Amino acid sequence: MFDVIIIGAGVTGTAIARELSRYKLKVCLLEKEEESAFGVSKSNSGIIHPGTQNPPGSLKAKLCVQGNVLTRKIARELGVDFKETGELILAFSEEEIFRLHQLRDEAQTLKVPGVRMVDQIWLSQNEPNLSRNVLAALYAPTAGIISPYRWVYDLAEDALDNGVEIRTKSLVENITVGGREFTVATSSGEYKSRFLVNCAGLFADDISRMVGVDDFRIRPVKGEEFILDKKLENLTRHLIFPLPTKTTKGILVIKTADGNPMIGPTAQEVEDKTDLTTSNDGLQKVLAGAQKLVPGISGKDIIAYFAGLRPKAGDDFIIRREEKVPGFVNVAGIQSPGLTAAPAIALMVVGILKSCGLTLKEKLFFRSHRSKTTHLFSINFSQARKLIQENPAYGDIVCRCEMVSAQEIREAISRGAKTLDGIKFRTRCQAGRCHGSFCTTRAMKILSEERNIPLTEVTKRGIGSEIVKKDRDHD
Amino acid sequence: MAAALSAQENGVEDILILERDQFLGGILNQCVHTGFGLEYFKEVLTGPEYAERFIERIKAIPGIEVSLKTFVVSLSADKTLTFLKPGKLETVKAKALVMATGCREKTREMVHIPGTRPAGIFSAGLAQKLINIEGLLPGNKVVVVGSGDIGLIMARRFTLEGAKVQAVVEIQGTSRGLMRNLVQCVQDFDIPIYFNHKISAIFGRDRVEKVKVCKVGQNYCDVPGSEFELECDTLLISVGLIPENELIEMAGAQLDQKTNSPVAEGVNKTSIPGLFVCGNSYKVYDIADSVTRDSELCGKMAAEYLKELAGKNRGFGKK
Prior knowledge:
The complex is a heterodimer.
Chain A: E1 2-7, H1 11-20, E2 27-30, E3 47-48, H2 59-78, E4 83-84, E5 87-91, H3 94-109, E6 116-119, H4 120-126, E7 136-140, E8 144-145, H5 148-161, E9 165-167, E10 172-177, E11 182-186, E12 189-198, H6 204-211, E13 219-228, E14 239-241, E15 252-254, E16 262-264, E17 268-269, H7 280-293, E18 302-312, E19 318-321, E20 328-332, H8 338-355, H9 381-390, E21 397-399, E22 404-405, H10 406-414, H11 420-427, H12 440-451, E23 470-471
Parallel strand pairs in A: 1-2, 1-12, 2-9, 5-14, 12-20
Antiparallel strand pairs in A: 3-8, 4-8, 5-7, 6-7, 10-11, 11-12, 13-16, 13-17, 13-18, 15-16, 19-20, 21-22
Chain B: H1 2-9, E1 15-18, E2 34-36, E3 45-46, H2 47-59, E4 64-67, E5 71-75, E6 80-85, E7 88-93, E8 97-99, E9 103-105, E10 121-123, H3 124-132, E11 136-137, E12 141-145, H4 149-160, E13 164-169, H5 179-186, E14 193-194, E15 197-203, E16 210-215, E17 228-231, E18 234-237, E19 241-243, H6 246-250, E20 275-277, H7 288-313
Parallel strand pairs in B: 1-4, 8-20, 10-18, 12-13, 12-18, 13-14
Antiparallel strand pairs in B: 2-3, 5-6, 6-7, 9-19, 15-16, 16-17
Helix pairs in contact in B: 1-7, 3-4, 4-5
């Protein structure tokens, strides 16, 4: 019997799990995929928003500003790189400049720090590759970037270290409510708890319906994103935004924690919650949108692309206790700025659980700090030399495009990577310009050795995505 | 290896070969098919046999030192290399440097094929490595995208392994590969080949399930109504090769934006004096014998550069 079950190990679920792990509670985090972050979170662009572009009075507005501060603090504790790049929202006409002034005033009401207008001279000095048609921009210095996967993994690992039980490959099939007790039937068995938190992302409406609350729908909004070669790391210094529309923040030029710039996303409502296809149309739209901001970008620079689905449930987040079902908390519709808001959402949810009667007694020892993971690509040569002398396997390069060593891959596996995608998200092995042509076999072998599974059971992202069909040596 | 041997024959006494793999020979090791050496050795050899001829000669020459599992992480314009190997990070400065870094395959992403991103999409070279080196069969029902030589050779290889090759789909009107590969690897096995066709979508969530094929007209535009689907669990991408020149780019050498080859006055040269590029990293060749010939000329050129340098400096050029 758990005190709290959380459904969904995306950024919201893991942030809540970690926050709850401060207290003397039995907490279980259920995830249907093979690893954490494999749902909505993995296709996040990794932007930590400053808090602009949200309607005042909304949950999004409040939690985004708080989340920006909390993310920095927790990222420091967990050893995840957060880089404050700042963002620029561009205006191409007098009318758009007027809209920027409105956005600035809203941001100031929301207490977003340091937001100010910058002119063409400032832009030509600080962001030389921008389109010459830009007349002015709104500068928000507190915007930043983080690796969305490494962020979720570190939140999950820290929660695990502090006693949270994480059950992956556990698809929730049915939930029964009886006498202040939830029984959650999953593909990996049955779990019982006194409190239940729904962070099921795209499937939050389905989960809520199982519990008897059927008053919202998740409508997926697809976003296609295109990743550029790392050679263009210095294409821009800031995150570059157009003016937001009513529904989206538009097509951006994004800096990422891994160095590769990214362009996108599109915003297209789709019916199918599993539709992660990319399209020619998406490519054309994103290229045109990005080139409007930074004209030097070309289709030739694209080395990878993907699509993600935003779990939209109306205009704002849904974060609330459900009076109809005591002990049940919905955390749904967490689309942008959900990644930024997650640590603030976690605090809010812990507060809600307390108000529902959950007793919060702090543990004497909460391990809030983790050692930083090692990445050769992010350190200098003298640091690398020292590392390799201490452990020769850091000098054994597996992924040539992104400079990832055998040791980094082994560490990723020891910290929880179970699939090639899990290794890729943690280390960048296979994520470069050759797209795994040269390193996939080696990564497969390391995964097979470390997990003690046959090569035929090595998967891209879980059962059904095995890489090879047959091993001639072990038939 | 051909460049090193030629440089040595032309008087260079102190040569270091840096190789990132654990063997010499590079991609030849996974090319177990025959057809190598017809011009150069006047014999029919497999890739590994072809490589072995050079490896034996290299091993017999004390002036050529080989460092395996060695990964160069940086190159500067003064030809200083920094490399990693298990247990070591070292720096070495060369008087002349020959890059023989080969090429890499274009990916599905570079030709922007839309659809899902499941397991089962391989570059033809990766599939070749899985089958020939690791003894692993990537899939049972295969569609080959593009008609590059590796793709054609792998169409035959998969068929011999008992897999069904559904089709080769080539966007151009003719094969990109050698005529002999088209005949011996595709036509002789009755594998359908669709010219002027492209893959317009990939389906399958976890593993490839099928692809949509579509005829293309002028400027590679889709011909409406020409679409059909092919079931498959594996997609091999063989749409061309790109010279691997990221290191010389890092050193500041100019590259042709379209081909990724160095831009300079003269074959095998770069915009940096004493920095040479040979074989497939200079330009993608059809056959290994051309790569060997090109590399021999390049090795000689490096030797001549060192002689000139020595003449200028009155010392004798090593390395």
